[in-house]
């Protein structure tokens, strides 16, 4: 059991599974009652085709996740957090 992160209101998870159905190793547990929205891959692809802003939003989320993973790797390998000028990495 390893906590990978805590998501807040309007944040997403499972976007990789929607884009690439390879089994994932992480699971999600809610800390409080919440409403979730599920979208199948074919619906998501149709939405991205019809609305380029949706595709851009997904790309932004994925880029942020990659940057966050890079920051975590730096922390784990050096013990030092590399923050940007805004303090957010």
Characterize the structure shown:
The mean pLDDT is 84. Helix content is 47%, strand content 0%. 0% of the residues are buried. It is built from 3 helices and no strands. It is globular, with a radius of gyration of 15 Å. It has 89 residues and is mostly helical. It has helices at 15-19, 41-50, 52-78.
Write the layout of secondary structure elements.
Elements: H1 15-19, H2 41-50, H3 52-78
Helix pairs in contact: 2-3
Question: What keyword list fits this structure?
Answer:
89 residues, mainly alpha, globular
Distance between the termini: 26 Å
Radius of gyration: 15 Å
Number of helical runs?
A: 3
Structural class: mainly alpha
pLDDT < 50 runs, ≥5 residues = none
Helix content: 40-55%
Instruction: List the helices and strands in order.
Output: HHH
Task: Using the alpha-carbon principal axes, give the shape.
Answer: globular
Main β-sheet: number of strands, strand sense, barrel status? none
Percentage of residues in DSSP E strands: under 5%
Number of strand elements: 0
Mean pLDDT: 84
């Amino acid at each position: 059991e390893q906590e990978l992160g805590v998501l807040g209101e309007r944040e997403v998870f499972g976007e990789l599974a929607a884009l690439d159905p390879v089994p994932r190793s992480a699971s999600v547990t809610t800390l409080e009652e919440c409403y979730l929205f599920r979208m199948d891959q074919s619906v998501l692809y149709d939405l991205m085709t019809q609305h380029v802003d949706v595709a851009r939003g997904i790309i932004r989320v994925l880029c942020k996740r990659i940057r966050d993973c890079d920051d975590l790797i730096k922390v784990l390998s050096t013990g030092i957090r590399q923050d940007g000028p805004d303090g957010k990495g």
